[in-house]
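Morning!

As promised:
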Amino acid sequence: MLLLLVVLLLTAGCSSTGGRRAEQARERAATAGGAVDTPRWKVAMVTHAGAGDSFWDTVRKGAEQAAAKDNITFLYSNDAQTQNQVQLVQAAIDQRVDGLLVSLAKGDAMADVLAKAEAAGIPVISINSGQEFSARFGALTHIGQDESTAGEAAGRALARRSRTGVLCVIHEQGNVGQEQRCTGARSAFGGGFQTLYVDGVNLPDARAAIAAKLQADPSLDTVLTLSAPLAATGLQAVQDARRPVELDTFDLGTQVVTGLQAGTVGFAVDQQPYLQGYEGVDLLWLHRYNLDALGGGGPVLTGPQVLTKDDAAALARYVARGTR
Amino acid sequence: MHRLVARPEFGALLAAVAVFLFFALTADSFLRLSSLGTVLYAASTLGIMAVPVSLLMIGGEFDLSAGVLVTTAALTSSMVSYQLTAVTWVGAAVSLAVVLAVGGFNGWMLGRTRLPSFIITLGTFLMLTGANLGVTKLVSGTVSTMPIGDMEGFASCHWLFASEFTVGGLTVRATVWWWLGLVAAGSWVLLRTRFGNWVFAVGGDAAAARAVGVPVARTRTCLYLGVGFCAWVLGQHLLFSFDTVQSGEGVGNELIYIVAAVIGGCLITGGYGSVAGSALGALIFGMVSKGIVYAQWDPDWFRFFLGGMLLLAALLNSWVKHRAELGRA
């Protein structure tokens, strides 16, 4: 009797909209049917992502969905440390993959192992970072965002919004891409501009540092963060500072989109990580199937795309499902 | 047979064979010679450091600065060579002096204060992490060092620390030779010399060792110097195989060295363990970390599997040790 009641309750209690089931249905719709009839090729992606990075999860999702569509077995591995990333690339070569996607954040260190991929006849496409190394290492193309250009786009947006004092928050001291973003923004903006280094793996500490800086310097009216997690931290810091300060950011995330809708985030510069994974797999497929090279082998830019309140409502559902 | 079972690395040997068979059966590309070369390389870069770390653990101490010390070694060597436009051997020599000084500092602090090595080396770890970033940025203006691949001496340094050769598809890197050499040397010192007896004595009961005339402080300092030397070897490998070094690297590796030593049968309380065991621990770690890739499992679970392996290996070790003691009684 009790069992019957539980079963009844469970059936009645199911949501007909949203939730995990809706997510599964969407995934099936995105991956089912329409697969090409090429042989089952194997593509590996090796990135410099740390464990549990939301940005790279979106890249991976794009790659997985393109792989499903292209009848490709997709292998993913990642390690934030150079020597381990090199070993993972070597492991992919050992598995005789048909194509290799690799992020070149530690460019020089990858030269040797990519030469081995070339020797083994494995086509390589670099994604996300390392545009300057890509062609030199024999990659077919680079798919990503030029960080200086992205910084300049942010700088122009800041000028358009007539901000006067901008605080650019670098959360990985010495990350070249982050420096380029801030430098690009500074040169295109032209107004008051400062840089603050915080510890991106210690968010409470970063929050306190930003808040303290805002409290100490009344000339600042804008915080510019370089990633979605730091944008969320930046928003908390703005609240802590109890001053009307605008937050602008690079990259999207749930909190960023909610912020855009609510007006607490001014704009977000997006590099479309989903595209980096999706196009990477798709271009390898095109190369193998048809010897195609998009843009004649020059870098394929996935950003910058400057998103504001007007775009936020339409974006929210895609961010929620983790593909934007 | 009974003598074999009683050895500290026996459990690790069983575990290594089990892990090997497991991945040989589940991952089809695992048994290829090129794959085994990759596994050996992964094991060797870890195993080089597991040798002095296991000796240190047998001596009853920790070194949490071992991971970033490797990066310090590579950074120092690279920056000295580049900034002074010196032959790369000069950079390597200065680097050796610097890391031995750090090791010596750890040992000296331990001898002079009554602080646990956990605290002392935690302090060194933090200072080195900061210095790696700070000094590099100060000297190079960026967080990575300048390429030194075109400098004099690079070719011979590369040969010594980062060369490789291929026998019938199996690529063996220089680190593998260094690793085997260090394991042999470490084992010999531990099992065949008076110093080895001192290490066991100091780790087992420092007060008793001191009472029978063992130079406790000096023994420990020597062990820390050993960590410095091996960090130098691995650091030079990183530098001369990758040409440039990122200053933020190495954090977290110190725990992995300890994991390798523990899987290999070292007791966390000191006084028991072996160097050969640390090599098996590194091999297990290398097989698991790359085997998961060859088996094409979801890498999100990597650390979970690794933790599971560690617990299983530790349990197996303590069980084997218990059985051996029962047999002796």
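The mean pLDDT of chain A is 88.

Hope this helps with the figure draft.
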